[in-house]
Write a structure and sequence with these properties.
Blueprint lengths: L1 H9 L2 H12 L10 H30 L8 H48 L4 H6 L2 H43 L1 H48 L1 H6 L3 H53 L5 H42 L22 E9 L7 E10 L4 E5 L6 H8 L7 E6 L2 E2 L5 H6 L1 E4 L10 H5 L8 H10 L3 H6 L17 H15 L3 E5 L7 H15 L3 E5 L11 E6 L2 E6 L1 H5 L5 H12 L1
Parallel strand pairs: 3-8, 3-9, 6-7, 7-8
Antiparallel strand pairs: 1-2, 1-4, 4-5, 9-10
Helix pairs in contact: 2-10, 3-4, 3-6, 3-10, 4-6, 4-10, 6-7, 6-10, 7-9, 7-10, 9-10, 14-16, 16-17
Bound molecules: adenosine-5'-diphosphate and magnesium ion.
The site of adenosine-5'-diphosphate has 13 residues, from helix 11.
């Protein structure tokens, strides 16, 4: 991704504009049925520009009624009224222009937001391993806001200025060709420098946006892990890290400000230079009686219009360039290939999986860490309804095994068979609908207990939810809360203990009624009392399902149909507790001995 950014800046100017503009235009494909608002808005935009252009003309005519040779009061009154009408019309046009553009933009952006989000959550796990949450978050927020500002105001303003420049120059030429030629001699200088500076401005502002995302990542990471930060007394370290990162933002932003400042002062110089030259030459023409005073005034006003528009348009151009960068980053997400998951409101168990699982010579390496093969030639056979315990030291690849079963990743070689068929031949949705996982750290979403349990089956009835909670041994503690199932958990609600969260997760799994159950150290972080209650619930849940139990404490898996001992990604031993204990120099036997001694 970072590589792509660099390349875009190194490309020659024309090519860069072409490709980036093309990608930016993709935003407009999210317009849906709101396109007409853009078109009607554009008509109002043209009308506001046209009325704006009438002002200098009418004012010039008004001034000329005071010509000592004419002194025409009725004409002055008449033009005054016309000016008033034009003024009213312009206000009305402006209202509809702004209203329609905002309406159009908000609808388009909502469509885009929804599309990006629904695409993002369908991306495979490997994508999330390679992209930090903070960065993705900033694309979803600040980049989209940049696009929003641009669509709502910048583009409209840009077009308006453009029309004023073209129209203004036409009126100028009509008023006095000589003066126009003088004025136009200055414009190209301004225009060329605008493009030149615009490039720098774009580069620096993009850099600043990236640095801001980086520093937001620090905030997010530390706040998410605030307990860790405090436990390690690392406030000072984190503070330094954040301070350094904000300093980098300041440096880059100031650099950008320097370019913009230089740009602004240059434009101002050109503007005043143009006005002085034009007034001087215009006065000479008026003295020679080639133009009237009213026409000189018209000319001055048009010159100011055109000059101001040219000055403003460069800044708008830089804004649009920023937005183009934002669009590119947002569409980088859209261009990632998603997993094929069907997104339904109701999870229909169309294909009930029996639960025969075979890992056949499976090897695996994480795409983000190619140098280490995490699983090597792993073969495990689990028959329908069996309990397979997986034990081994931390980092030996147990959780990875489970990730492959859930098809977060696919094996590098070997196959995973489910009911005799390659796991890849199932749809991801079907496969995952038939599985449930109770992990070590259960993540609850900020909602009610009811909603959190229903996560396993969104259309569950309250009776089903209560029944699931009962089976998960969770009913007692839920009933002890005044608001029962409506109790809010997480940030603004009750903090649940580890064992309580675990039981919510079990209730989720009960509701889902999976044929394959995965317990990844589900009880490892619990005290022995909670462990007993949770274990009891788990034992009930495991009945009749193929269960993969990753356990830390070997005492919990004695009754497993098969115990797989895994170390450094390879299966060392497998068999029942008794079989493994009878092996004289087995790893399981020595681990088991060690644990019983400790306890
Ligand atoms: N998302 C990941 N990307 C890269 N490497 C990973 C990832 N997850 C785990 N690993 C590495 O894979 C190895 C096995 O990890 P894991 O399966 O979590 O072990 P266990 O669950 O047995 O403790 C470890 O060396 C770990 O560092
Ligand atoms: Mg693990």
């Amino acid at each position: 991704m970072a590589r792509k950014v660099k390349q875009a800046d190194d490309l020659p100017k024309v090519k860069l504009t072409k490709t980036s503009l093309k990608s930016a235009l993709r935003v407009f494909s999210y317009t849906g049925q709101h396109r007409w608002k853009l078109y009607v808005g554009l008509i109002f935009l043209l009308l506001t520009s046209a009325t704006a252009l009438l002002f200098p003309k009418l004012l010039g005519i008004l001034v000329d009624t005071a010509d000592p040779k004419k002194l025409d009061v009725p004409a002055a009154n008449y033009i005054g009224v016309v000016l008033l009408v034009v003024l009213v019309l312009q206000s009305v046009f402006s209202f509809f222009r702004v209203y329609l553009f905002v309406n159009y933009t908000e609808n388009t952006l909502a469509n885009l937001r929804q599309a990006v989000y629904s695409h993002l959550i369908k991306l495979p796990m490997s994508y999330f391993a390679q992209n930090r949450v903070g960065d993705l978050n900033s694309r979803m927020s600040s980049d989209l806001i940049q696009i929003q500002d641009t669509l709502t105001t910048t583009i409209a303003e840009f077009l308006r200025q453009f029309v004023i420049i073209i129209g203004g120059v036409a009126f100028l030429a009509y008023t006095s060709l000589h003066l126009t030629i003088l004025m136009l001699a200055i414009v190209p200088v301004v225009a060329i420098s605008a493009v030149f500076f615009g490039r720098f401005i774009r580069k620096t502002s993009r850099l600043v946006q990236e640095k801001i995302a980086e520093s937001n990542t620090i905030i997010e990471e530390t706040l998410q892990g605030i307990a860790n930060v405090k436990a390690f007394a690392n406030e000072f370290f984190e503070n330094k890290r954040y301070k350094r990162s904000t300093e980098v933002i300041v440096e880059n932003a100031i650099l950008g400000g320097k370019y913009r400042g230089a740009f602004a002062s240059f434009i101002i110089f050109c503007l005043f230079g143009a006005i002085v030259s034009v007034v001087w030459y215009g006065v000479i023409l008026a003295i020679r009686n080639e133009i009237s005073i009213g026409q000189l005034m018209q000319f001055l006003l048009y010159s100011i219009f055109v000059g101001a528009s040219i000055g403003g348009i460069a800044e708008l151009y830089a804004q649009i360039q920023k937005a183009v960068g934002a669009v590119e980053r947002v569409f980088e997400i859209m261009d990632e290939k998603p997993e094929v998951v069907e997104v339904y409101e109701q999870k229909l168990l169309e294909h009930r999986i029996e639960g025969n699982v075979v890992f056949q010579n499976v090897a695996f390496t994480y795409p983000s860490r190619k140098e280490i093969q995490v699983l090597k030639d792993v073969t495990i056979v689990a028959n329908k309804g069996e309990t397979i315990a997986v034990v081994g030291p931390s980092g030996s690849g147990k959780s990875t095994l489970v990730a492959l079963l859930l098809r977060f990743y696919d094996p590098e070689s070997g196959t995973i068979l489910i009911d005799g068929k390659d796991a890849k031949s199932y749809s991801l949705t079907d496969l995952r609908n038939n599985m449930a996982i109770v992990p070590q750290d259960v993540l609850l979403f900020g909602g009610s207990i009811k909603e959190n349990i229903a996560y396993g089956k969104p259309d569950a009835t309250i009776a089903e939810i209560a029944e699931a909670a009962r089976k998960a041994n969770a009913l007692d503690f839920i009933d002890s809360f005044p608001e029962k199932f409506e109790t809010l958990v997480g940030e603004r609600g009750v903090k649940l203990s580890g064992g309580q969260r675990q039981r919510i997760a079990i209730a989720r799994a009960v509701l889902k009624d999976p044929s394959i159950l995965i317990l990844d150290e589900a009880t490892s972080s619990l005290d022995s009392e909670s462990e007993r209650v949770v274990q009891e619930a788990l034992d009930k849940l495991m009945v009749g399902r193929t269960s993969f139990v990753i356990a830390h404490r070997l005492s919990t898996i004695r009754k497993a149909d098969k115990i797989i001992v895994i170390d450094k990604g390879s299966v060392l031993e497998s068999g029942t507790h008794e079989e493994l204990m009878s092996k004289e120099s087995g790893l399981y036997r020595s681990l088991s001995r060690m644990q019983t001694e400790v306890i």
